[in-house]
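Q: Joint fold for the lines below.
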Amino acid sequence: MKGEPAERLDPRAITLWRITGLLNLLPLLVGAGFAAWALIRFGDVSLFLAVVPVLAVLVLGGMVVGVAPGLRWRRWRYEIRPDEIDLQRGILWVDRTLVPLARIQHVDTRQGPLQRRFGLSTVVFYTAAGPNQIPELSVPVAAEVRDRIAELTGEQDEL
Amino acid sequence: MSSERHLHPVAMLIGAIGTLRRWISGLIFPGIVLLMSQGFSLRTVALFLIGVLVVAALAALWGFLSWRATTYTVIGNSFRLKRGVFQKSERTIPLDHVQSVDTVQGVIQRAFGVFEVRIETAGGGSSEPDASLSALDRAAAQSLRREISGSQMEGTEETAGPAVLRKLSTRELFVAGATSGQIGVAFSVLAVGSQLFDDFFSDDFVRRLVETLAPNWLMVLLIFIPVGLLLAWFLAIAGTVLAYTGFTLSREEDFLYIKRGLLERREATIPLARIQAIRISEGVLRQPFGLAAVRVESAGYGEDAGVSTMLFPLLPRGEVQEFLAEATPEFAVNPALQKLPRRALRRYVFRAVFGYLVLALAATLISFLVFQYAVGLLAFFLLLPAALYGWLCYRDAGWAFEEDRLVVRYRSLGRKTAVAPRRRLQSREVTRSPFQRRVRLATFLAEVASGSGGYALRVTDLDARTAEKLAGNLAPAARLEGA
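A: Joint structure:
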């Protein structure tokens, strides 16, 4: 296996991940607030104890929104070599995946509503064993990556 | 071959029974209520019988009509099925999309010596066949099969027919059942049974039963657990007998044929070219006797999923290589496996023990808080077996990459050995957890196509450097090989 893959995701990914993290956290925060309220109202628990769930969610939120996106971006790397796609990702558990281009059946780009706001796009490629993706590339880069994968896949098939 | 053909007339009966079954499940309840409320007077019984006759007659008529409406033909390069009494439907399946032509013989079909033919393509769902012909006689089934697979085999001449590779003897069948270890499955059946029991007997009866039994709960446990286990064991044997009676594996050219089943005879075809990986599993009850089962992971057409199929349910470990050499030569390798580094042992034991530790702590805490009684401490006695299991997992783990094939051995209760050729690997992955990074270990994972996702060959805790090298070595040499 060669050294780290060369390419990085678009830096705007960090902001996007912060926002999605926040959105995912909201229901949890509402739940914790409700729990705190219920504890005070019915459980006869002191205020200090009751805010524990809210604090816990806030700490978690700090991690998810503040720290994780940056680390995640720094770790995420990809490279499309003539024969293989090389992916590296994960904050604590670091995954390195190699997918031979000859095994790729088709490639998509896809874009969620938030991604569209940021002008980002995700490239998804499928092998017979399931999909893999490179998320949060700027739209032109994603299109380029998609076309390059498609082209290389075709070439590999002819061999 | 372009004439439109009908199914065997038994199809009428099968169709009628199917219809009846659907109606009866809707009618049985009102019928019983009617009988109960009116009492068993001659009039109601007569009415009931007339009702049954009318329904049966209608079902028979429907069976006849749908038989008349159903025809199939093979035209050019596609299979065509016409169906429907009122709403006509016509389905065309291109022959080279056909993944398998299987025959199944249910109880009715067996009674009349006919076969249900199922044609599966890759596009459709996994459980429902894309086209099912409910009754064909032997000759018709064979000629249809030949027409369909003939185009796939590209003009293979009529040969002597598939050669039988191995047959499961009656003795082996029972041994397979007794050692199948499907006791868990059987237990769930028992649980459902006891649920029915609950519904059936009155609360009063149950309460009295409990009152008489409660003081002697230890006795009851001592009786019930062995009896339950024994019952589960018999169920497991019965299940195996039902599924695997007469298990026969044969091969002709590049196709494997499997026949099996006691009441329902099943016949399946596996093209060798679709087999992605092979798994030899030595169950907990089988390993001590040197026995193993062999499964294949096969993929479908295009991106569609294949399945994990039993290739042979029981054979001595020593004969596996010989068997594979005949059945699936591509997978017949038995290299010496590379062991994991010593420092992986600690990770294995920790991983096995950790779950139990959390559980035991929770059990202690709960038993102490709820019952004021630290019964949960008993759970700590499980730690030693758990650690032992971790050690076993470590001892059995290993891998090899030889003759262009990846071999991986691991234990998950039973010991499993998986073999996949390099050209079947869809992707490779090296994962490192924070704990592994500290001791320079990594988990290696290679995926082959199977099922709706993939089947992964995994080596946990091998040397990180080795894992990376392995991932590199397994790269496809497409440019050299010409794929």
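Q: Anything notable?
A: DSSP finds five helices and seven strands in chain A. The helical segments of chain A are 12-41, 47-50, 52-75, 113-118, 139-158.
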